[in-house]
Every structure is written in structure tokens, then in C-alpha cells.
């Protein structure tokens, strides 16, 4: 009777852990959906070119959604395997979850390492600044609308600082920097003295990306802990 009770309790705990895997998968997918809907920063890169790096950056949120869906499916397989005592289901569950965990940790470490982030974005710097300087301010230009939204949401100016706009057609034509580069409370013209010195690259690199990396790492640890 005691043995039966222990087995029943073990099965209950094991199934609870599989449900946690499903919930964490849902959380990962939910974070990906939120990133896809709320973040427009990646759109800046899409206006530059169609390189593999640009495509990879723009696929970040869809990859999180896919990863979350896979974890949810694996949690279901693990739950069914425990319930029906199917060893092959449990084997598939453990192998797939372990592989995805390893990939999550590698991606999280890559995201959190300062040097790797700098190497990724430095290759885009020249094209981004060139596109910003030459195309910003043109009527119906996606570059203008995307940068305006990015600078407003991240409270930043240009790629590295306001100087990215210096000698641009926009500044020459208007004799001032974009309104988004100055304080929201400022009603005066946005000149060099008033423009923010904080670039969007700095904000993206040091404030937004580490959050994604830390979340991936934390979710991965919790998933393996509940295998």
C-alpha cells in the first residue's frame, strides 16, 4: 500500500513538472509574441539590406514563438508518456528538451557577452548611419517613420548620438535636429545643445538585449530543473 502511494505521488510530481515545461513554453512563446507586437526596433535593420545578419535579427521574436510552441508540445508528450507509461515518449521528451536547453544557454551567453554584441552590430554601423543620414526626413520614407518611433520609444537620438544627423540633408534643410532627439518637455528648437547624446545603439545593446538573454537563461534553468 505504501509502495502504491509512493508511485502515485511520484507520478503526480512528475506530471506537475511536465505541466511546468508546458507553462514555460507558453511563457517563452508569449514573450516572443509580445516582442513581435511591441518592439519596432528590428524594423530599422530591415530597411538597410537583406543580409543574413539582418534577417536573423528580424527573426528573433518568431524564433522565440517557435521555441515556446516546441516546449509546450514536449511538455504534452512528456505528460502523455508518463500517464500511459510509454518509454519512447519520455525518451523523446528528455532528448529534445535537453538539446533546446543547451541551445538556449548558448544563445543567452552569446547575447549577454558584451564583445559578441559589439561584433554583431559593428558590421551594421556604417550602413545604418549612412541610411539615417541620407534618407531621414524624406517624405513617405520608412526610414523616417521607423527611426522616429525607435527614438521616441527608446528615448535616444541617432545610432550612436545626435552627431549622426550632422551635415545631413535634414539638418541642412531645417537647421535643427529631429524633435525626437530632444526632451519631450522642450518646446524650443532642437539644436546641438539641446539634442540628446545617448544613441539608440547604446540603449539597445545595454538595456534591452540583456533582458532577453537573462530571460532565456532563467527559463532554460527552470525547464531543466523541472525535467
From TrEMBL:
Membrane protein topology class: Multi-pass membrane protein
Transmembrane portions of the chain: 20-37, 57-81, 88-113
Gene3D superfamilies, A to Z: Tetraspanin
UniProt keyword Lipid biosynthesis, yes or no: no
Alphabetic keyword roster: Glycoprotein, Membrane, Transmembrane, Transmembrane helix
InterPro entries: Tetraspanin/Peripherin, Tetraspanin_animals, Tetraspanin_EC2_sf
Location in the cell: Endomembrane system; Membrane
Any single GO CC term annotated in Swiss-Prot or TrEMBL for this entry: endomembrane system
Superkingdom field: Eukaryota
PANTHER family hit by this protein: TETRASPANIN, TETRASPANIN-1
Subunit structure: Interacts with SLC19A2. Interacts with NTRK1/TRKA.
Family that this chain belongs to: Belongs to the tetraspanin (TM4SF) family.
Job description of the protein: Structural component of specialized membrane microdomains known as tetraspanin-enriched microdomains (TERMs), which act as platforms for receptor clustering and signaling. Participates thereby in diverse biological functions such as cell signal transduction, adhesion, migration and protein trafficking. Regulates neuronal differentiation in response to NGF by facilitating NGF-mediated activation of NTRK1/TRKA receptor tyrosine kinase and subsequent downstream signaling pathways. Plays a role in the inhibition of TNFalpha-induced apoptosis.
Protein name: Tetraspanin
Species name: Sinocyclocheilus rhinocerous
Amino acid at each position: 500500500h505504501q509502495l502504491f502511494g509512493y508511485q502515485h505521488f511520484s507520478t503526480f510530481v512528475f506530471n506537475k513538472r511536465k505541466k511546468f515545461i508546458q507553462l514555460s513554453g507558453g511563457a517563452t512563446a508569449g514573450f516572443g509574441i509580445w516582442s513581435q507586437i511591441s518592439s519596432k526596433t528590428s524594423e530599422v535593420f530591415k530597411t538597410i539590406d537583406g543580409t543574413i545578419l539582418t534577417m536573423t535579427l528580424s527573426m528573433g521574436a518568431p524564433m522565440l514563438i517557435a521555441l515556446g510552441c516546441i516546449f509546450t508540445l514536449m511538455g504534452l508528450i512528456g505528460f502523455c508518456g508518463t500517464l500511459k507509461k510509454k518509454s519512447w515518449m519520455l525518451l523523446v521528451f528528455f532528448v529534445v528538451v535537453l538539446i533546446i536547453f543547451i541551445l538556449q544557454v548558448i544563445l543567452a551567453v552569446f547575447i549577454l557577452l558584451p564583445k559578441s554584441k559589439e561584433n554583431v552590430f559593428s558590421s551594421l554601423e556604417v550602413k545604418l548611419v549612412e541610411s539615417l543620414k541620407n534618407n531621414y526626413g524624406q517624405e513617405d520614407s520608412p526610414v523616417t517613420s521607423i527611426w522616429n518611433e525607435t527614438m521616441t520609444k527608446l528615448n535616444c537620438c541617432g545610432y550612436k548620438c545626435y552627431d549622426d544627423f550632422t551635415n545631413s540633408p535634414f539638418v541642412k534643410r531645417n537647421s535643427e535636429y529631429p524633435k525626437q532627439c530632444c526632451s519631450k518637455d522642450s518646446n524650443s528648437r532642437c539644436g546641438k545643445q539641446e539634442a540628446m547624446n545617448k544613441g539608440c545603439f547604446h540603449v539597445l545593446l545595454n538595456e534591452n538585449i540583456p533582458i532577453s538573454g537573462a530571460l532565456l537563461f532563467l527559463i532554460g534553468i527552470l525547464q531543466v530543473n523541472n525535467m
